[in-house]
Specification:
alpha/beta, Enolase-like, domain 1, TIM Barrel, 2 domains, nine-stranded mixed β-sheet, 12 helices, 13 strands, 19% strand
């Protein structure tokens, strides 16, 4: 089997639901998502999506077509490890790019591989389960403590096994929200806080001590991931586990899992360089007995790929589920929970999902076909 074409679409959805209504001045009106299609001479196609909320959609789509076409045309897509290694070496000289685009390409290659062998990606990795409990993550822009409490109750009522909050506006604003949520859902329901790296060390310590008192399940990315010394110091001061390393590269990850660097590690197929890269991270963490929790990338096909890896991993306890606005373009989206709060693997080969081409056509801004130099 050989790769014969690389095609990219640039998709867009409205950003209004993200902001709870109107888009603030200075923010982009749409979120863009490159859709990658890798075509083979066996009439098998592989697909992947990206995530471009800050106006970089056109650039990412162009890079996928211009850079990877020259490398991938004529290659055997079933040789995922060899191609991953080749692209990793290429990335050494792509100074303006991250491993995220490699992650997109790798997911599409695994989709082809699964379709060719008639197996799901999870089965090829070594499936351990076909469903996972899910926790819900919502929108928390400028919300009051009462609004946060209501959101937590609503997600709990939907069947989620926990709720994660994304805010980091400082102790004065955040602590009342955290207290209100805990009071609303009771003492034992799992709650988490994701600071998205925006706390100072002192603010993270102040908020973290309140999380200790409130019995929160983890504190995620309180500081910039690469401030490993401060993350270690913070972890020593708090009872609440620290989850970090979402944005560090695969090569840097070992520093975070050795010598009690952090309590839990974050990973996904986007920032950890694809299914191939994330699976290497999972194996590293399994050997060192450090939980690696996989989350969503709010990009449909990446999130389906994340679910496959999570169901093959013994280190991932559960799976994030984000807002419905990110569950688009698929006819059988497995990122919707059932009545028991579980996410289920799709049954088909590869990613196991069917693209909704009518929806995709309606939301396509641009189509590009890569050309060999």
């Amino acid at each position: 089997m050989k790769i014969t074409a690389i095609k990219v679409r640039r998709l867009a959805i409205s950003a209004k639901p993200w902001f709870g209504g109107s888009v603030p001045k200075g923010c982009h009106q749409t979120f863009e998502f490159p859709l990658l299609e890798i075509v083979t001479d066996a009439d098998i196609k592989g697909y992947s999506t990206g995530y471009c909320p800050l106006g970089q959609g056109a650039g990412c789509a162009r890079l996928l077509a211009d850079v990877y076409t020259n490398v991938l045309l004529g290659q055997n897509p079933l040789e995922t490890e060899a191609l991953w290694q080749k692209l990793r070496r290429l990335h050494r000289h792509l100074y303006n790019m991250s491993d995220a685009l490699l992650g997109m390409v790798d997911v599409a290659l695994w989709d082809i591989k699964g379709k060719a062998y008639g197996q799901s990606i999870a089965s090829m990795l070594g499936i351990q389960r076909r469903s996972l409990p899910s926790y819900g993550t919502g929108f928390y822009f400028n919300k009051t403590p009462d609004m946060i409490a209501a959101d937590a109750l609503a997600l709990k009522a939907q069947g989620y096994h926990g709720v994660k909050f994304n805010f980091s506006d400082g102790p004065a604003q955040d602590i009342p929200r955290l207290c209100a949520a805990r009071e609303a859902v009771g003492p034992d329901f799992k709650l988490m806080l994701d600071g998205s790296s925006f706390y100072s060390y002192q603010d993270a310590l102040t908020v973290g001590r309140e999380l200790d008192r409130l019995n929160y399940y983890w504190l995620e990315e309180p500081l910039f991931d690469r401030q490993l010394g401060r993350l270690k110091a913070l972890s020593r001061e708090l009872k609440t586990p620290i989850l970090a390393a979402e944005t560090v590269s695969l090569l840097e990850l070992s520093e975070y899992v050795r010598d009690d660097g952090v309590d839990l590690v974050r990973g996904d197929v986007y920032l950890k360089a694809g299914i191939t890269g994330l699976w290497k991270a999972v194996n590293m963490c399994e050997l060192l007995n450090v939980p690696l929790e996989i989350h969503v990338c709010v990009s449909p096909l990446l999130d389906v790929a994340n679910l496959h890896v999570a169901c093959a991993s013994s280190t991932c306890a559960w799976m994030e589920s984000h807002q419905p606005m990110f569950r688009f373009g698929l006819k059988n989206n497995p990122m919707n929970i059932d009545s028991k709060g579980l996410l289920h693997l799709p049954d088909g080969p590869g990613l196991g999902v069917e693209l909704d081409w009518d929806w995709i056509d309606q939301h396509t801004l641009e189509q590009i076909k890569g050309k060999r130099i």
